[in-house]
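Tokens for chain A. Residues wanted.
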């Protein structure tokens, strides 16, 4: 069992001894616990089960160009500029400056770094200065407190105290390592927030453009249906059709009109989302408006190597940092079970006269070293170490889950882009066929060759084909943005 001990040294010897203790503790101490090593990248050479096609199919329509997948092409940190929309660029630039979620993430990063700096302060001695003036009157029945018989006196004391805890077993170094890993986690979460914000803005802008196109298509169909109702009514007045035909056409028109309010609701909610992401209130309506014609479909799409994905995904890097922090906490827990050393030194002076505190024999000093070892604590320290080890295993499992999800995101997006291109091609052909069918049916109805059922069927098919084509165009744009997000968003190229 180690007991406190005291030295009798000169002031010079005191200073040299204190410095020697500090250097010895920092230079010869070892950091207990496991040293963290970054997990290796998954040993896979692709994202999909089948060999990947280098390009998509194309369609002769706006947004229907083929897209080419370029292996190992780097990603710009401003990838959204590939959509060639000045309105989108301006919106994202404004949102980056004003979005409160991004500001909160940046503040969290600053807080984490300050905690690292605060913990690093324990590597150095703590120096405190104290001045204590007092006026006292002692009892004559006791021995005089001073070296004279004076009972009423002033007493001035000045003292400098130095306290130092040598990091012999590296407990503080592991704690700093853990906090630095937490700061890295916040940094990658900040990057993830940045990527998520920009991706959400692009997706919302595409959604708005899609809804505007669907609303325009629906209004066009309503116009056609309104003309059909007017024609059937005239035919009914002439006795050419029955009242049932008129009722059927009016019901069809009402059904088409019924689809318009939900689209308008979605459009307004999307506008609210864009405004909120830009850091404004919904009532301000300060964001730009978007149309599909103003969004260019990027033709060359990057596909990072699988070995690089774990470097580029900020959520994977954040999970890795969490794993690193948990590893360092094991070392902290082990160090807490080992002997703890402290050094305390004091130098000061005391006198009944303010100017004489450091004169004659008034100065004093002391230096005390202490070593303490916990012998019994009910298993607390042992179980804290085991809890740290379990936390590391949890972080490792979460890291693997995050990596798997990252690869899944890329694979899903690659499949979606191929499917989107094929869907748009099919939707274009279907729309052209339904338009021709509707035109022929309208002409035949005017001549009395077809009944209202044929016209109704042609109208419904045209409506569905038009909306499907618009959605297919929007899906290609949205999934292109999703690919950039799934690959990490190019944050590593951001200044």
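Reply:
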């Amino acid at each position: 069992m180690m007991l406190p001990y005291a030295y009798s040294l000169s002031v010079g010897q005191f200073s040299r001894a204190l410095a020697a203790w500090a250097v010895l503790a920092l230079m010869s101490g070892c950091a207990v616990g496991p040293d963290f090593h970054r997990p290796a990248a998954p040993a896979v050479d692709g994202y999909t089960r089948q060999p990947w096609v280098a390009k998509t199919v194309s369609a002769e329509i706006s947004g229907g160009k083929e897209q080419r997948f370029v292996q190992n092409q780097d990603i710009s940190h401003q990838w959204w500029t590939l959509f060639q929309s000045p309105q989108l660029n301006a919106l994202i630039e404004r949102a980056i400056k004003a979005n409160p979620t991004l500001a909160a993430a940046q503040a969290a990063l600053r807080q984490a770094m300050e905690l690292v700096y605060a913990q690093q302060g324990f590597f150095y001695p703590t120096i405190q200065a104290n001045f204590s003036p007092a006026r006292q009157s002692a009892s004559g029945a006791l021995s005089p407190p001073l070296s004279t018989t004076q009972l009423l006196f002033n007493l001035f004391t000045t003292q400098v105290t130095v306290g130092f805890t040598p990091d012999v077993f590296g407990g503080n170094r592991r704690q700093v390592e853990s906090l630095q890993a937490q700061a890295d986690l916040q940094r990658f979460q900040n990057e993830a927030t940045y990527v998520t914000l920009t991706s959400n803005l692009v997706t919302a802008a595409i959604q708005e453009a899609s809804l505007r196109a669907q609303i325009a298509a629906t209004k066009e169909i309503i116009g056609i249906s309104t003309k059909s109702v007017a024609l059937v009514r005239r035919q009914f007045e002439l006795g050419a059709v029955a009242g049932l035909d008129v009722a059927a056409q009016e019901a069809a028109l009402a059904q088409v009109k019924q689809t318009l309010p939900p689209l308008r609701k979605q459009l307004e909610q999307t506008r609210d989302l864009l405004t909120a992401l830009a850091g404004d209130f919904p009532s301000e309506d300060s964001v730009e408006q978007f149309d599909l014609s103003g969004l260019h479909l990027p033709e060359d799409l990057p596909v990072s190597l699988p070995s690089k994905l774990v470097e580029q995904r900020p959520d994977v890097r954040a999970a890795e940092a969490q794993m690193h922090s948990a590893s360092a906490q094991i070392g902290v827990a082990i160090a807490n079970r080992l002997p703890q050393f402290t050094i305390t030194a004091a130098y000061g002076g005391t006198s009944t006269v303010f100017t004489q505190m450091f004169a004659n024999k008034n100065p004093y000093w002391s230096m005390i070293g202490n070593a303490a070892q916990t012998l019994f604590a009910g298993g607390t320290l042992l179980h804290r170490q085991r809890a740290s080890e379990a936390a590391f295993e949890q972080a490792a499992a979460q890291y693997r889950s995050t990596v798997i999800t990252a690869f899944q995101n890329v694979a899903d997006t690659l499949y979606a882009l191929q499917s989107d291109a094929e869907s748009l091609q099919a939707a274009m052909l279907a729309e052209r066929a339904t338009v021709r069918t509707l035109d022929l049916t309208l002409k035949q109805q005017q001549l009395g060759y077809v009944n209202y059922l044929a016209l109704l069927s042609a109208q419904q098919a045209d409506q569905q084909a038009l909306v499907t084509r618009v959605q297919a165009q929007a899906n290609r744009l949205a999934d292109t943005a999703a690919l950039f997000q799934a690959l990490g968003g190019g944050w590593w190229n951001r200044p």
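The longest strand covers residues 152-164. DSSP finds ten helices and seven strands in the chain.
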